[in-house]
Design a protein that fits this description.
GO terms for molecular function: amino acid kinase activity. It is built from nine helices and eleven strands.
Amino acid sequence: MLKLKYLFNNVDLAEMLLGNWEYDKQSLDMFEYYRISSNAIYPFQSQGKTQLLRFSPRTEKYKENILAELDFISYLRSKRYGVLEAVVSRNGEKLLEMQTPWGDYFASVFKRVSGVQINKTDLSNKVIFSYGKALGKLHQLSSEYKPSKNKRWSYSDVLNWIHNILVDFPDEKSALKETRLLQDYFSSIPMTKNNFGLIHYDFEYDNVFYDEESKSCNVIDFDDSMYHWYVMDIEQSLESLQDCSLPEKFQQKKQCFLDGYRTEFEIPDDMMSLIPACRRFANLYGYVRVLRSIEDKWNHEPEWLVDLRANLTEAMKDESLCFGKEIE
């Protein structure tokens, strides 16, 4: 997520950035439905259709990663995969780098996808099967994908980034040990076209929309995509599915998801043994991102920020429970 100082609503900044795209001026009241986490997202309309302005400080992102994300989305759309669509600016660009009074920012605009978020459906077998099928198809297409220019970072790059962040936190010895454990563990795992490639990473229920009309899913938010073992996406999806399923029904929903997945792509059974390590990776990555985000503190913070900091700190405790322990 972004550093806490970037989580404040800034309508003037959003409007300044949006000026580079076509938009309906009367729709700017939709800005009140903004949200900010890893990016700032401000909804608006263009010719009566809802679109989303996404922006972030240049210091928080790598330009090549964003360009590679946009390239991958274009590839998926060319294969008729259900995915969001980037909108070109008035100057014909999908990614803008802008100087503003608040610093330099990256900005893009996307069309809203059709359907409803998975967790807002009835979670029927039909929906869960489609959810799994969408991930399997994504991995099948990823296994054939060869970036022409820009390339997303890999799990190894992420672990190096984590290590570099932790250097500035000398008390985080267990997190640093966890980083080394994961580096050693994953370095021993074979990479093949069938088990490793560009993954979504955040294929959770709020980023996948089920469209009743087409009986298929549409996917958004590739901001965290990276090169990793495909089972990483499976683990993240199942963890998300468990959060929105009744405990007594989860195993059946899990099987339904995997059945849908396997209609599009197959991963060797031995790859499922990576799931515990993938959970450890997700916990460490989430922990360090929050650690970096909440580092700065100010006097007389607004109540919402105090509460957010407390909630994030509590979540970090859960994520760090296994740090430094042997990976199963």
